[in-house]
Amino acid sequence: MNITDTKNVHPTDTNQAVMVPDFLLLPVIESAFCIIKKQETSQIPTSLRRISNFDAKTLHHSTARAQIISSINSNDDFRQLVEEEFFNRVEANVALNSWSLNDAISIIGDFASRNDLALIASMLWLKKTRWLRIWIRSNTCTQFNIN
Question: Which of 11, 35, 48, 132 could form a disulfide with 124 if both were Cys (CB 3.0 to 4.6 A apart)?
């Protein structure tokens, strides 16, 4: 997958033009899917109720990923549940606690060497931080050969 591909990309937030490819958001999408599967149907955003009846293979379809991301962006209650689920993962919490803008290149290099860029990108996207916009704008993705 090419990082410059413009299909299946999602804004860091509704006011920003910086886009993140959905393959870098898979960890947060997986956390959202866990929430969808755990919740009663009445507690799931309406747009995701159909997805709740499927298994994890659903996440292989870009339409399902786009619906999940759209619900995270548009439903604050759902977003909060997803954040809690995501940051309950030990590796996500480690990513959050290890992040420093001053050491961003080094940290991203460490995550790249472990094939964990999706984890750090998901963490930064969920937090809607300026760190993610800086990372993408600085061509860090190109520096670490994400394609």
Answer: 132
For residue 76, what are its two tokens? 């604050």
DSSP 70: H
Q: How far is CA 24 from the centre of its chain?
A: 6
Return the SS3 of 119. helix
pLDDT per position as a tens digit, 108-118 = 888 888 888 89
Residues 6+ positions from 14 with CB-CB distance below 8 Å: 73
Q: Which residue carries 């809690």 as its tokens? A: 84
One-letter amino acid identity for 72?
A: I
Rounded distance between C-alpha atoms, residue 65 and residue 115, angstroms: 21
What does the alpha-carbon distance between residue 36 and residue 22 come to, in Å, rounded to a whole number? 18
Largest CA distance in the chain: 45
CA distance 50 to 5: 28
Smallest Cα–Cα separation from 8: which of 74, 79, 63, 60? Answer: 63
Q: Give the tens place of pLDDT for each residue, 34-53.
A: 998 888 877 778 878 777 77
